[in-house]
Amino acid sequence: MRNIVSVLAGSALLSALLVSTATFAADAKKEETGKDIAYNRSKGNCLACHAMPTMPDAEQPGNSGPPLIAMSARFPDKAQLRAKIWDATATNPGTFMPPMGKHGVLTEAEVDKVVEFIYGL
Predict the structure, then answer these.
(1) Whether residue 60 sits in one domain with residue 12
(2) From 101's CA, which of 39, 56, 108, 113 has a CA 20 to 30 Å away?
(3) Range of the domain at 97
(4) Could you tell me the pTM of the whole model?
(5) Residues 24 and 47 in one domain
(6) How many domains does the chain have?
(7) What is the distance between the alpha carbons of residues 21 and 65, in angstroms, rounded to a whole number?
(8) Is the dihedral of CA 68, 70, 73, 79 positive or negative?
C-alpha cells in the first residue's frame, strides 16, 4: 500500500511539474515584443505621433513626429536612438516627445525592446 501511495504522490508531483513547465513556456511566448510596446496605446504609443511606412499594419499613424524609417541610417549609433527614446528632452528641451524612460512610461527592458524594433525600420 505504501508503494502505491508513493507512486501516486510521485505521479502527482510529476504532473504538477509538467503543467508548471507548460504554463511557463506559454507565458514566455506571450512576452511583449518591441512592436507590441510601440503599438500599445497605454505604453509606447509611437503611432500617435509617428508614421511607420514600412509597417503595413501600422494603422492611423500620426504625423506630428518624424516618420520612423531608415532608423539605422539616421542613428548609426543605436545608443543615441535609445537615449532619444529614454529622454528626448536631454538633447531638445522644446520637444513634445515624452521622456518615455525618464518619466517611467516604459521600463529599461521595454525601452530596449522598442529600440530594437524601431532600429530595424
Answers:
(1) no
(2) 56
(3) 32-119
(4) 0.72
(5) no
(6) 2
(7) 43
(8) positive
- Cell triple for residue 51? 508614421
Closest-CA residue to 34 (of 112, 97, 87, 121): 112
C-alpha cell recorded at residue 15: 504532473
Specify the residue for cell string 511606412: 53
- Please state the rounded mean pLDDT for residues 26-50: 87
pLDDT at 60: 87
| Amino acid 111: pLDDT | 97
Lowest mean pLDDT among 9-18, 38-47, 99-108: 9-18
Residue with cell 503595413: 56
Calculate ∠ Cα 58-104-50, nearest 5°.
25
Between the CA of residue 41 and those of 10, 44, 46, 80, what are the distances in Å?
47, 7, 8, 24
| Cell numbers standing for residue 50 | 509617428
pLDDT in tens, 73-113: 999 999 999 999 999 999 999 999 999 999 999 999 999 99
CA distance 113 to 66: 20
